[in-house]
Amino acid sequence: VELGGSVLVSATTDEENWSRGIHTLIKKGILEDVDYCIVPEQSPPGTITVGQLGRHVFHIDFYGKAVHAVFEGGINAVTDASRAALEVENIKELGYMPEYDKRGSICVTGLRGGGSDILVPEYAELWIDRHILPNQTTEDAAKQIDEAVKRAKIESRYKLTWDNRPTPAPTSYITPPDSNLVQTVTKALENSSGKEVEYIIETSVADTNHIAVHGKVPTIILGPHGGNTCEANEWVDISTMLTVTQTLMGAATALLNNHE
Fold first, then answer.
1. Angle at the Cα of 30 (from 29 to 36), degrees rounded to 5?
2. CATH number at residue 180
3. Which of 14, 145, 171, 233 has the fewest other C-beta atoms within 10 Å?
4. What is the pTM of this model?
5. What is the pLDDT of residues 52-69, one digit of tens each?
6. DSSP labels for 157-191?
């Protein structure tokens, strides 16, 4: 079969951490001429993942006042950070997209400060994992966290920052369901499975976020069925491989033959 384009296959490292592998491809311009991206991650049967939540890590420095542990007058940064952590965990309005039945999430992932010194700890720090929906902004999430800290009524001064990392954060995205990529893959999947296709949004992040947002390449996920994702004994249902393979071949042929 003579095709009107070519297929680029890449396998990158450091996914879900700093994603340095995919950002190397982006910086070297390897994705500049790429029109579409299909990532064969685990997928529920009969679905196309058209978007993903974004992940942003927030960091709060707490500055108290050190005095001898038996004296009054100190400001305990550790207990203040703990109070703030509880308020952050109690945030309820995390966003909801009814068309995909998808919600945002928040989790305090770290709290550090103090030690065995005979002092009221003057410094503590807090880490917060926040997954936001495509219809939310990082600034809104930061404001929400800041308001939660204020509700804790702490004495310590604090500083809120986010996304302190060597590469851009994995931002949320949606590839429009009516786009050429999604519609072409939908037709191929319906032909190979004989079933109606459902569009979904993935709960967490991967290199796909970086490809879609920072690489500016329309991106979807379509792969075999599996389970225990990112856990021990992760598995793939081999019986679903044939449908996925037929779908990818049909979609690639159609996309490349219509390539301009």
1. 115
2. 3.40.630.10
3. 233
4. 0.90
5. 999 999 999 999 999 999
6. EEEEEE--SSS-----EE--TTSHHHHHHHHHHHH
